[in-house]
Structures are given as C-alpha cells and as structure tokens.
UniProtKB/TrEMBL annotation:
The active site is at D148. Keywords: Aspartyl esterase, Cell wall biogenesis/degradation, Hydrolase, Secreted, Signal. One of its GO terms (molecular function) is pectinesterase activity. InterPro entries: Pectin_lyas_fold, Pectin_lyase_fold/virulence, Pectinesterase_Asp_AS, Pectinesterase_cat. PROSITE patterns: PECTINESTERASE_2. Pfam families: Pectinesterase. Its EC number is 3.1.1.11. It is an enzyme of class 3 (hydrolase). This is Pectinesterase. It comes from Solanum commersonii. Coiled coil: none annotated.
Length: 306
C-alpha cells in the first residue's frame, strides 16, 4: 500500500495565552526523536523552525507527491483557526495545545485517512476531539474534556494516551468520554482506547454533588467503542456506559483486560460486553488500522494486544 495517501484534514487549533494549562497527567510522555532529519518542516513560534504557522508549512508541501510530508510542531500556543488543504499524512512530535474556548465547541476536527498524531495535547470541554472519518492513530497524546469529548465515526485507536475528564458546568451531573457515530451495522468504524490512563481532574473530584463519569454513550444506532488494557480511575461510574436515545440493541460497547478501581465489570449495564482476547484482536493497530503498513516507524506503537 502506498504510504501517506491523500487526505483532507480540517483542524481547528486554538490557543489562550491568558489561560493556564491544565495540571499535568500522571502518564509521562517519552522524549521526541533526537534526529531532526525526519522532518520536512518545523513550525515554531519562537522562530527556531523554518515556519511560523502550520498553514505556511502545509502550503509548502509538494502536490501529488508519493512521499510522506512530515511536520514537527514545537510546543507553544497557536492562536489562529486553520483549515488544512489536501495533504499527505502528517505527524506531530512535540506537545502542543489545541484549545476550545466555548464549552461545547469542537477543538479539533479530523477528516483524514492514514493520519497519525504523536505526543499532542488536545484541550477542550464538550466535543474536544472530533475523529470525524478516516483511519487515525493517536499515540502518547493527552485529551481533556467534559462531555462526548472523543467522538466521531473514524476508524481510530488512541494508544497509551492520557484521558482526563474535567469538571463540567454546574448544571451537568453526568459526563461521557466517548460518543461513537456508527450509523450502520456494515460500517467498520469504532473508537478504541488501548493502554490508556483514564482519570479525572482535581476540580471534578472535589465537586459536589458528585459527577457521574461514563466511558461513553451511543451517538448513533450502531455505535461501537472498545476500552482495553487501560487504567480506569475510581471515578468511573460502576455502570460504565449510559444510554442516549434508549435503543441499545445494536450498540457494541466492550471492555477487555482493564485495571484500576473503575475496571470492575460487576455493576456494568447489561448491554455492555465483556470481550475475549479473540474479540479484541480485531481491534488492534495491526488488524483494525493495518498500521504496520503506514504508521511512520519513528512513532512507537504496539501492533497487537498489550
């Protein structure tokens, strides 16, 4: 398969210099690769790169090239809205902030085939990360949000990522991490969390009345989400998952080999599935994304089960 197929990636990057970033999550990020030779473009607000904006770096990408175009985005605040044109697959190595000011605004929307994100931070509230469509891989990333903050209908795996639930608005007493948008049974899409750390912010932990934290709810009639080999904080609701429109017959929400105080399956809703090793083998980087064929070798990954 040709590496880096053409993809449309429309992404909104926000920054707030006046805001203090959220507290760091307990899962440390590995250091970036030491060699800069793997990057075609480096974006840095301090002038240490060869571009000052993501848009400029993307506009410099060659058209109709069969080679991957790689962009490094150095840490900093990007204070513009970007619409990305038709591009080759890209990957990001240094942590950065993707902010949404509005409590229910999408911070990052991705419509892309064969796109990988490495060591990125997505900060928002409701609807933070919209994995809209395509084949997507996130490794060693951090995602913050309140309601449905990882959602969409892509074939997407978040591997070894830190997922932090933030305190919602005062009128909200329930929050949901995922909202998968699979409309038809034949669609081969799903949101997969593999080897992730799922916890809550200190502000949420201290709020009264207590907020119920669910792994997800079905956005569409055939929603499919899998949480496997992950750590679940004690604030994870014992029921695990919550209904949206009352129809759960065709919903596929499953868990496998999770750990932590929130991983006990005894109190889960009846329509949640306890998956076997055979079941989840279909949702690995190798079998679900065919990641061994296109994910850049510089990004560490586990192709099979953890």
């Amino acid at each position: 398969m040709t590496l880096g197929l053409l993809a449309l990636l429309s992404t909104l990057f926000w920054g707030l210099e006046s805001q203090s970033p959220p507290p760091p999550l307990p899962l440390p990020l590995p250091p970036p690769p030491s060699s800069s030779s793997i990057f075609n473009a480096i974006v840095a607000l301090d002038g240490s790169g060869n571009f000052m904006s993501i848009t400029e770096a993307l506009q410099a990408a060659p058209n109709n090239s069969d080679r991957r175009y790689t962009i490094q985005i150095k840490e900093g605040y990007i204070m513009n809205i970007y619409t990305w044109p038709w591009i080759r697959s890209t990957r990001h190595y240094n942590s950065k902030y993707c902010w949404s000011i509005d409590a229910s605004a999408v911070a990052t929307s991705i419509s892309a085939d064969h796109v990988a994100f490495y060591r990125c931070k997505f900060d928002g509230y409701q609807d933070t990360l919209y994995a809209r469509k395509g084949v997507q891989f996130f490794r060693d990333c951090e995602v913050y949000g309140t309601v449905d903050f990882i959602f969409g209908n892509a074939k997407v795996i978040l591997q070894n990522c830190s997922i932090c639930v933030r305190k919602p608005e005062d009128i909200q007493n329930e929050v949901t991490i995922t909202a998968q948008g699979r409309k038809r049974k034949h669609e081969d899409t799903a949101i997969v969390l593999q080897g992730c750390t799922i916890n809550v912010s200190q502000e949420l932990r201290e709020r009264e009345p207590k907020v119920r934290v669910f792994l997800g709810r079905p956005w569409k009639n055939h929603s499919r989400a899998i949480v496997m080999s992950s750590y679940l904080d004690d604030f994870t609701d014992p029921e695990g998952w919550v209904e949206w429109n009352g129809n759960t017959e065709d919903i596929y929400f499953g868990e496998y080999n999770n750990r932590g105080p929130g991983a006990n399956m005894d109190g889960r809703v009846k329509w949640a599935k306890i998956l076997s090793e055979y079941d989840v083998s279909n949702f690995t980087v190798r079998n679900f994304l065919h990641g061994h064929e296109w994910i850049p070798y510089e990004i560490p990954m586990t192709l099979d089960l953890l």
